[in-house]
Design a protein that fits this description.
Radius of gyration: 41 Å
Structural class: alpha+beta
Domain Gamma-secretase-activating protein C-terminal: 595-702
Organism: Clupea harengus
Protein name: Gamma-secretase-activating protein isoform X3
Distance between the termini: 96 Å
Low-confidence stretches: 514-522, 753-763
Helix content: 25-40%
Largest sheet: 6 strands, mixed
Shape: elongated
């Protein structure tokens, strides 16, 4: 799982180079006892060796230029326990371990001598401290700042539990010589005291230390302007008396003390500015050789997890040290106990155990290093094998991940593998292609998770995380949380007990925030236009997938606009500090990337199965390749529907075309009735035009027309050349015309025009069938007998009053009584 890439080899990169140079100068050469001392912020490796004439030399290896540089030579053999070089490479701080000789037993000699040496050129040497305790030295390497004053700042960290910062003023003589000003009066400040554990963070120029009494972890930030400040304090629930002696972390290697490991627990802090994460990892005292306990405190998440791992008793015979090794790669913290287990914890998604790897047996190996002790360097992102003098950069192997994905492994491991490949390795096009190929080729679904949903959410999470910070806690990264009850397989690791807990809130110094009102955007059409304008137009111009992004598709466009609106509202509520413009850009880009992901999957499918424009021909039966694509597209539809995500406009039309070609007509209509397929207007229009009026096709068209909503039916009915279609058109036209006639009649009555007035009557429309029907009815009405003509002795006065009464009623001038 973990692949170790060699970045430095003491024998090949240093010793061979030294031997070549010395062979050029003289015939006899001797390089003995080479040792790595420290790794500075720029990656430069400080080392020492003993020469043939009894000298001790200190050099630096530059990993960028691959060159070695001699820094200083002691004219006798000394034991270098700590070493640091300033950024300008003009000063060298060295801490020497002094051992009593037989002839010096009666003379008082300090155990540790700390020196400050001018090396540009070699000139003055000053003794900074001579004490009977271990001392580590570390120059500050601040970010570049323009200053007219030459100065360096040096930290002295002592075993007695205090840190002093020396401010060293420099001067340039003769244009090139750099010397110390007033070396006898160097200014110094007390940075911290009364601690039992200390760690140096070279990348962020921070010092972490653990106070002896309250067991609080404090962090001191060093700034270029000579000042430093305590950034925060974090209470930790550590075991009692965790350290029997002072513990130095990432402050170089004292080979004269650390040949045997320091007693006590292992404690290390990992920070990542890009990930905005901070993890405090520590082990627990080993009271029984049956189990090992360790805790990972996710400070950026406000929680911790304590793991208790049962050990394989057969493997205990070869294990002498049961304190695990902690290091990190990417956004994974790795816990390794040689011969027992390899635990990779996801620092982004620490909620469930299924997003992390726990490997044992033959899988729990660490590259070619095997079971030898490996120490963390350079902020924990590099590993050092002390015995061979090799340094490695650990990475997660893509080949191993693909093997895990295809192998018959527990679903939790395969989910962790899929998440790792998509989020951690997903930026590699080949890895993404392999994942899509696996999803499309794996017909069997998993009980615990949906592969397509995981692909969409994890890929969107990775893309958005690259473009903006502070969104990992607001955007979903997995579909597992949509389940009401999580499967046991995703929440437990066999043989491992996990105890979660909430962390006490760290006390930050001088931090404030402002709240802004969230702005709500309701114009869904504008949202959709912005999203579609962000979609990669270059890729769409060369796309082989038909119909996508080529239709109006009001349903999907409405979903796109709604998602933009809701996501904008969500970010404005939780991250008001981003501002309106940045939030709008993030939201639009997020939804656009979602649509591009789906389009990218279909592009790979089209190329994989070599599909062409014949896909849209409804007269042909679907091929096996088209059936495979239809199956995958159906899974994509289910996955996005389960998450409430939109699809590219035209997706449902293309899916309906493939569905009609690949399944029988009865099954197709069942898919429609169960909302798995949608009868979009472009699809129905294509069906009405392409299929002839055979008995089978006619029955299909009738079945589809019955399932259409009335507005769509009126729009597509005229596309079918059939008597039923013509009758439908006629009925609709007559109904609409009669409605118009009624409206005009009411208007004519109000205006005072009679029905027989040919200039104002509305009973003579332009539609010929209706005009003919109206004329026939009018002629029949004229031929009908008038009942008043055959009757004599008619009361004219009564008829006149009745007619007047009816007129008043018709004109609504008098109520009917």
């Amino acid at each position: 799982m973990i692949q170790l890439n060699a970045t430095f080899d003491l024998q090949q990169d240093v010793i061979s180079s030294i031997l070549k140079k010395e062979e050029t100068a003289r015939a006899t050469t001797d390089v003995s006892d080479p040792r790595i001392l420290h790794v500075e912020r720029d990656g430069g490796v400080l080392y020492c060796w003993r020469g043939a004439t009894g000298t001790t030399r200190i050099g630096k290896y530059d990993p960028h230029s691959k060159h070695n540089k001699l820094l200083y030579t002691f004219d006798k053999q000394v034991c270098v326990s700590s070493c640091s070089l300033n950024k300008e490479e003009t000063l060298l701080a060295v801490s020497l371990t002094q051992k009593h000789r037989q002839e010096e037993l009666l003379r008082p000699v300090s155990k540790c001598l700390t020196l400050l040496i001018e090396i540009h050129p070699i000139n003055n040497t000053k003794v900074l401290k001579a004490v009977d305790c271990r001392v580590r030295v570390q120059f500050l390497h601040p970010d570049s700042v323009q200053t007219s004053v030459l100065e360096s700042h040096l930290l002295l960290i002592t075993e007695d539990g205090y840190v002093d910062q020396f401010h060293i003023m420099l001067a340039r003589h003769e244009g090139y010589r750099v010397v110390m000003l007033n070396p006898d009066r160097l200014a110094k400040d007390r940075v911290a005291e009364d601690f039992s554990w200390v760690q140096w963070d070279s990348q962020n120029q921070r010092l972490y230390f653990l106070t002896s009494r309250e067991r609080n972890m404090e962090c001191v930030q060093f700034h270029p302007q000579r000042n430093c400040e305590t950034v925060f304090e974090l209470p930790l629930e550590l075991p009692c008396n965790p350290f029997s002696s002072m513990s130095f972390v990432h402050l170089g290697f004292d080979h004269y003390y650390e040949d045997g490991r320091e007693e006590g627990i292992s404690l290390v802090v990992f920070t990542d500015k890009t990930e905005r994460s901070m993890c405090v990892c520590y082990s627990h005292p080993v009271y029984s050789r049956k189990e090992v306990r360790y805790t990972i405190a996710f400070v950026h998440k406000g929680c911790s997890k304590t793991f208790t791992v049962a050990l394989d008793q057969e493997a205990l015979c070869s294990s002498t040290n049961l304190q695990p090794l902690f290091f990190h790669t990417g956004h994974y913290v790795v816990v390794f106990l040689a011969g027992h287990f390899l635990h990779l914890l996801n620092t982004r998604q620490q909620d469930l155990l299924c997003y992390s790897f726990f490997l044992s047996g033959s899988d729990a190996c660490l590259g070619e290093v095997g079971g030898s002790y490996v120490g963390g360097t350079h902020g924990g992102s590099s590993l050092l094998e002390l015995q061979s003098g090799r340094m490695y950069t650990p990475t997660i192997s893509s080949a191993h991940l693909m093997d895990f994905l295809h192998a018959e492994r527990p679903e939790a491991q395969r989910l962790a593998t899929l998440q790792c490949m998509l989020v951690y390795k997903g930026a590699e096009p080949e890895v993404e292609r392999q994942v899509i190929d696996w999803i499309c080729g794996d017909v069997l679904s998993f009980h615990s998770f949906d592969q397509i949903q995981e692909f969409i959410l994890a890929s969107l999470y990775r893309i958005t995380h690259q473009h903006s910070l502070c969104l990992d806690m607001l955007l979903p990264y997995s579909s597992v949380f949509q389940k009401k009850e999580l499967p046991v397989a995703l929440t437990m690791i066999p043989g491992v007990k996990c105890t979660p807990a909430l962390l006490p809130q760290p006390l930050f110094k001088g931090k404030s925030s402002e709240k802004r009102k969230a702005s709500h955007q309701r114009h869904l059409e504008e949202n959709t236009k912005k999203v579609l304008s962000m979609v990669d137009t270059c890729r769409l111009d060369t796309s082989v997938v038909p119909l996508l992004f080529q239709e109006e598709d009001p349903q999907q466009k409405g979903l796109i606009g709604t998602m933009v609106d809701k996501l904008r509202e969500h970010l404005n509520r939780h991250l008001p500090q981003l501002g309106k413009k940045r939030t709008d850009a993030l939201v639009v880009n997020y939804v656009a990337k979602l649509l591009e992901l789906v389009h990218h999957m279909l592009e790979l499918l089209w190329h994989k199965y070599n599909l062409g424009p014949q896909v849209l021909c409804l007269k042909q039966q679907g091929s096996p390749e088209e059936w495979s694509v239809f199956h995958v597209m159906l899974r994509i539809l289910e996955a996005t529907k389960g998450l409430g995500l939109p699809l590219p406009p035209g997706y449902n039309s293309l899916l309906a075309v493939l569905g009609l070609k690949c399944v029988c007509r009865h099954s197709f209509l069942q898919f429609v009735d169960h909302s798995l397929l949608q009868l979009t207007e472009p699809f129905v229009s294509r069906l009405m035009k392409d299929l002839d009026n055979s008995d089978e096709n006619e029955a299909l068209k009738f079945s589809i027309l019955k399932r259409l909503p009335e507005p769509m039916l009126e729009r597509v009915c005229h596309l079918w050349d059939h008597p039923v279609s013509s009758a439908c058109i006629s009925r609709n036209y007559v109904s609409q015309t009669l409605q118009n006639v009624q409206i005009h009649q009411n208007q004519d009555k109000i205006m005072g025009f009679g029905l027989e007035d040919p200039e104002h009557s509305s009973l003579w429309p332009d539609f010929l069938p209706l005009s003919y029907l109206t004329k026939v009815l009018s002629d029949l009405e004229k031929k009908a007998l008038n009942p008043f003509e055959e009757q004599e002795n008619v009361d004219a006065r009564f008829v006149e009053e009745t007619a007047l009464k009816q007129t008043l009623i018709e004109l609504r001038l008098e109520d009917k009584t």
